[in-house]
Design brief:
The structure holds two protein chains of two kinds.
Chain A: H1 16-50, E1 53-54, E2 62-63, H2 67-74, H3 76-110, H4 114-126, H5 129-139, H6 146-153, H7 165-176, H8 181-192, H9 196-204, H10 209-220, H11 222-237, H12 241-248, H13 265-275, H14 279-307
Antiparallel strand pairs in A: 1-2
Helix pairs in contact in A: 2-14, 3-7, 3-8, 3-11, 3-13, 4-8, 5-12, 8-11, 9-10, 11-14, 13-14
Chain B: H1 3-16, E1 38-45, H2 50-62, E2 66-72, H3 77-85, E3 92-96, H4 100-106, H5 113-118, H6 128-133, E4 135-136, E5 139-140, E6 143-144, E7 150-155, H7 156-161, H8 177-184, E8 186-188, E9 191-197, H9 205-211, H10 229-243, H11 247-255, E10 272-278, H12 280-288, E11 294-298, E12 308-309, E13 313-317, H13 324-334, H14 337-353, H15 366-376, H16 383-395, E14 399-400, H17 408-423, H18 429-448
Parallel strand pairs in B: 1-2, 1-3, 9-10, 12-14
Antiparallel strand pairs in B: 3-13, 4-5, 6-13, 7-10, 7-11, 8-9
Helix pairs in contact in B: 2-14, 9-10, 14-15, 17-18
Classes of the chains: A mainly alpha, B alpha/beta.
Amino acid sequence: MATVTAPAPGRRRRTPLARREARWAYLFLAPWIIGFLIFYAGPMVASLWLSFTEYDVINPPEYTGLDNYRELMSDPAVARSLGNTVYYTALHVPLVMLISLGLALLLKRVGRLQGFFRTVFYLPVMTPAVAVGILFLLLLNTQDGLINRALGLVGIAGPSWTTDPHWVMPGIILMSLWSLGSTVIIYLAALQNVPRDLYEAAAIDGAGAWARFRSVTLPMISGALFFTLIVNTIASLQMFTEVYTMYFGNRETQNSFNSDAASFYVIHLFQEAFQFLHMGFASAMAWLLFVIILVITLVQVKLSNRFVYYEGEDQ
Amino acid sequence: MSRILRATAFAGVFALTLTGCGGVGGDSGAGGGTATKGTLSTMGFGFSDEIATTRVDAFKRDHPDVDLKVTEGAFDEQQFLSAVASGNPPDLVYMDRKLIGTYAKRGSIQPLTDCVKKQDIDLEQYRPAARAQVTLDGTVYGIPEFSTVRVVYLNEGLLKQAGMTADQVNLGDWAALPGLNAKLASVSGGRLSRIGIDPKIPEFLPMWAKANGADMLSADGRTAKLDDPKVIEALTTGVNLIQQQGGWGRFKSFRDTFDFFGAQNPLSKNQIVAWPMEEWFLNQAAKNTPTAELVVKPFVDRQGKPLTQSAGQAWVITKGAKNPDAACAFVKQMTATDTWVAAAKARADARKAAGQAFTGVYTANAEADKKIFDELYQPTGNKRFDDAVATIRSVQDAAFAMPASPAGAEFDKAYYDAVNRVLAGQEQPAAALQRAQREATAALDKAAK
């Protein structure tokens, strides 16, 4: 008696059409994959090797084992810059998300002028980061800056934003809010995709504005919230250009300011690599940052399983 | 590790942080290698004015077989190192003299012993302070170009208002400085509207320390002396002058509004009374505010002896230079007496055409300066500016410079950070400079290995 064996699950033969489609897919992906391998993966592997060496760019690297990582753990400048970066991230990310969400909710109600305001909110994102740094140096000027002048109008003596170590970071966070336009746009798009009938059903059930926001809006835009949480966290941990412009712009001006309070991790990495020629140590710093970002992102992804709703997924 | 792998690895540091890094590519097949022929590439230089163009034109005229490629823009370490890592460094780099020690120690620039010999470059024509900055362990690594010196600028109009004359301002009498500062500065309601004395720290701390009889770095550039009590006293003196004027926050934010390059400079706006600064401001003042009541005096040490700190740029030839002979010919011509004189003449003519005063060109070539001032310079008729020029010329030979050091950038950062911590109220001068001494010593020891 002949027996019929069912194909093993997961090993179903693909149709010629599916195979052809897969080939085309790989072909279209090829430029990105090649670019990734050459410009990211290759250099990353090489820099991993360099992180175990003493390397000054000019002379051949010398293998030093874990020396760079040991130094990394004991270097107070690294700890200080990492602390500053984490402090910035912890304040910047929630603030950007909250303010952006508030602005997006307001924009949603604007009606016909929404396109205009959407453009206005996005324009600051187009401003070059160097220009933003310089602009905020002027705005944050203790005596004549617009911000302290505005505070003065309501009887508040503004702080020394750029020189008082306690106020340097709040000043930088204030500056960072300048470019939250892209987050606003993402939230606005997500808000506009929330089905109206869900609100209507909730209203019929007696839900008030807050209950509708909490039980309908937030779950429905949780995917966008999660995306911006990840993206903004990574960007914050890599903060460089604006702060470098403000506090470390060139050899003559960089040290005219309080550099300890404004020392971000990537800025310190850049100085170690290009000013002090410690490329091996800088490579170790880069890998430490990579691991930190990876761990934070994995934690966020893990948490997202509980809090994020993706349209079309099984409930 | 192959060159390609090294270059790739170098890029990896920033791939990890998603930050790109630029580089300068050169044609590996370019360059002739024979004297004054082939391609010659430079980095860190630009055609910013007639001083630059006249000298480059002179070289092109005398070396028609050299294809000169000038990558315009200020020296950028990242750009330079990218070029070195990829095995395509430019032949010549125009950089701050204080960086030379670091790059020389790492072997990225060539000793110029053969160049000097072949081209018969007379090193004695360059000022001793400039020569010291391009010399590490007795070997010359660069040919000095401009030479800036620092003098004290005084707004005599404001001094008169305070019932004083310029002669009564003595920055060498440190005990009297607080009194003088209080008399000259204007602070009311916590708002600073006029700076009395700007000590210009951290930038000018080495000059204040020298005025107090201390060197912050040993002559061989290998031993930091930042915790010397005399350096601590110099820093304390400078910081006190700033604290007296409302503290660092007010002081700096007020100073940040100054525009030294326009007609609305702090001299014309009566925003500052006495400040040490580089001599280039005289050019700007002559151009923009020729009627200002300006007096220029030498900075003096505590014994009243004129003192100034010299700095500037230099030309270096990179280790992988493809056309070192043409590079050597270029640096010789760019810094030669005749070339400087021709450039100064172009500047004088340009100033004359614009109806502005020519206040001289200050180079690291003492012989060129002598010729420029003997043959080209004409007193402007404005006694203030003519006296100022005489003052600047008189202090040039009293100049000292920070010596070439294998860890110059780290040394600078150590003491700049220390001053910043003190200015920000985070540390006292002694503690800050002791920490700086530890940091600088560690960096210098590491670099010396």
